[in-house]
Design brief:
The chain is mainly alpha-helical. The chain has one domain: Helix hairpin bin (Helix Hairpins). It contains 2 helices and 2 strands. It has a two-stranded antiparallel sheet with strand order 1-2. The longest helix has 27 residues. The two termini are about 25 Å apart.
């Protein structure tokens, strides 16, 4: 999970990069934070998709998606 403080830091580093550049240490920090954020989004999406099930309704022959 990515904290609010980490998201603020991602945004601070992005702003600084646009305004004049980052140090090597800041670039590494930015990459690590971005990776953590992307991994968290992927995990959340995967959990959402994994919770969806296709169910066949045998009563009327129809199909539906179930969460």
């Amino acid at each position: 999970m990515v904290t609010d403080a980490e998201i603020r830091r991602i945004n601070e580093l992005a702003k600084k990069a646009k305004q004049g550049g980052l140090t090597a240490a800041e670039k590494e920090e930015q990459q690590a934070l971005r990776r953590k954020y992307i991994d968290a989004v992927r995990a959340s999406l995967k959990a959402s998709l994994d919770s969806i099930r296709f169910v066949e309704d045998l009563k009327d022959g129809g199909h539906r998606w179930k969460h």
